[in-house]
Design goal:
- There is one protein chain.
- By secondary structure, the protein is mainly α.
- The protein is about 35% helix and about 0% strand.
- It has one domain.
- The longest helix has 17 residues, at about 20-35.
- The chain starts with 19 loop residues before the first helix and ends in a 19-residue tail after the last helix.
């Protein structure tokens, strides 16, 4: 996997024209690929901090580097 595939091709790909609070939806696929893929050091997954740094540096997207998790409701099963 080559990280250059996830770099923005132009300013339009950064979604800078979209209101900031709506940018997450457009950038979520990149963030997910960075975190789930093997784009980190030594071919490992990136940490949340590394993903946040990448998004800040290449996409001008500043978000808290906190992973939010909502546990399933009691009694719900897969």
């Amino acid at each position: 996997m080559d990280i250059s595939e996830l770099l923005p091709r132009d300013d339009g790909a950064k979604f800078l024209h979209v209101p900031y609070e709506e940018r997450w939806g457009h950038l979520k696929p990149v963030i997910t690929q960075l975190y789930m893929g093997k784009y980190g050091p030594n071919g490992k997954s990136m940490t949340i901090s590394q993903v946040a740094g990448f998004m800040k540096g290449y996409y001008s997207f500043y978000a808290a580097s906190v992973l939010c998790f909502t546990p399933p409701k009691a009694g719900m099963h897969d």
